[in-house]
Specification:
394 residues, alpha+beta, FAD/NAD(P)-binding domain, Elongation Factor Tu (Ef-tu), domain 3, 6-stranded antiparallel sheet, 12 helices, binds flavin-adenine dinucleotide
Length: 394
């Protein structure tokens, strides 16, 4: 049932992960809440997340899994809402789930379970949901005025949870940044994160291997080492390790890919017992054949194993450990899972997520300059930052 109050305690801009979670917490405190979203249903990004199974949290969450210009900002909110608290909620709703790998928690059945749970947590008698309603601007006198394409709404407080710029066809817009700028905030420059990379075909013919996955260890100038899968695509590289690294790289990126992550494989290549076997077939004993053949052909390694000296084989092994393909950009916001950068956290309270400039204006979730690694960290940030507001409103 739709409640027709015209003025509310809170207007939440964006019915995504952070906005819906905040609405649940605030209505449980008896606050009147209006959520406004430009899309036709709430939680659209949750529905497509984790391949439709929503990787809703990561049990290893800690600040080192987040990128921000102000790395300690996220500590306070994260420490006050743990992954186990969200898991407890999931269990309360009897949603079947499992740990996939590396602490990543997924729904067994469908991401729809998470959206249903978030909606059920919202007390309907003090709540109204405006869908297909686009926020254009927010102004303030003694109260807030939220200007939309369907008219104006007023409230005591405004929570901006309009997300980042990734996946424009799912409602992503720059409104959160525009609102922040209009109230005197600054924005840490944004860029696509967790995004497939485009590789120059001169560096390696990735397209020939599209769909093939190998294990790898990837490091960029500024990132930790990511030891996960690497996927070849028609345009270059993707897969978890590449997506992770992509959030760290800038305009002229250098990434180092180690394809020889099993130490025994190094010895196999340098001192193996392959005699007159073709080099590419020797490589096939440790790599998928398609990769081994393409790698040997590209590097003109067409002789037999024993043709190459130990010194040469050592250099070949080193080449496999230090592959630095030339990156020609990324596949952009259309393919990026997240937006790196956002509202400058130095201008927000880390305890309450409230603006230090405008009382009762809050920013939560992805619109803020806090970006998680792949693996459920971005949703954990959405829950934790939304929870911070409800604690301050209690
Ligand atoms: C394909 C994909 C898969 C992902 N999988 C995972 C995963 O498994 N685990 C994980 O942790 N993270 C995942 N993410 C990242 C995660 O979805 C986001 O970090 C998270 O949804 C951010 O939550 P949010 O509430 O801040 O923003 P969003 O969920 O993006 O919500 C923002 C809302 O604001 C609305 N909005 C925008 N502009 C306006 C406007 N002008 N007026 C009104 N409404 C507006 C949008 O319609 C949207 O509903 C994935 C992302 C993508 C794209």
């Amino acid at each position: 049932m739709k409640n027709e109050f015209s003025h509310s305690d809170y207007i939440i801009i964006g019915a995504g992960a952070a906005g819906l979670f905040a609405a649940g917490k605030l209505t449980q405190l008896g606050k009147t809440v209006r959520i406004i979203d430009s899309e036709d249903k709430p939680g659209k990004k949750i529905l497509i997340s984790g391949g439709g199974y929503c990787n809703f949290t990561n049990i290893h969450t800690n600040p080192s899994h987040f990128i921000s210009d102000n790395p300690h900002f996220c500590t306070s909110a994260l420490s006050r809402y743990s992954p186990y608290q969200f898991i407890e909620l999931v269990e309360k709703y009897h949603i079947p789930y499992h740990e996939k790998v590396l602490g990543q928690m997924f729904c067994d059945t469908s991401a729809r379970d998470i959206v249903r749970m978030l909606m059920s947590e919202i007390h309907q008698n003090t709540f109204t949901l405006e869908l297909q309603c686009k926020v254009k601007a927010v102004t303030k006198s003694d109260i807030f005025f939220v200007h939309t394409d369907k008219g104006m709404y007023t409230s005591q407080s405004v929570i901006v949870s309009s997300g980042g710029l990734s996946i424009p066809k799912m409602g992503a817009s720059c409104i959160g940044y525009d609102i922040a700028l209009s109230f005197g905030h600054t924005i840490i420059p944004t860029k696509p994160g967790l995004v497939p990379l485009i590789v120059s075909e001169d560096t390696f013919p990735c397209s020939e291997l599209a769909g093939l996955s190998i294990q790898s260890e990837i490091q960029t100038e500024k990132s930790p080492i990511f030891k996960e899968g690497l996927l070849f695509t028609h345009k270059g590289l993707s897969g978890p390790a590449i997506l992770q690294a992509s959030s760290y790289i800038n305009d002229s990126p250098t990434i180092n890919i180690n394809t020889l992550i099993n130490p025994s494989h190094y010895a196999t290549i340098v001192q193996g017992n392959f005699g007159k076997m073709d080099w590419k077939n020797a490589l096939s004993t440790i790599f998928p054949k398609r990769f081994a053949y393409a790698w040997a052909q590209y590097h003109k390694q067409s002789e037999t194993y024993s043709h190459y000296s130990v010194k040469t084989r050592t250099s070949f092994a080193d080449q496999l450990m230090n592959w630095q393909p030339i990156i020609n950009g990324n596949e952009g916001y259309a393919k990026a899972e997240v937006t790196v950068g956002g509202v400058n956290t130095k201008e927000l309270s880390s305890k309450t997520m409230m603006s230090n400039k405008i009382p009762h204006l809050y920013f939560i979730g992805e619109v803020v300059d806090v970006t998680g690694h792949l693996g459920g960290y971005n949703f954990q940030w959405a829950w934790a930052s939304a929870n911070a507001i409800s604690i301050s409103s209690n």
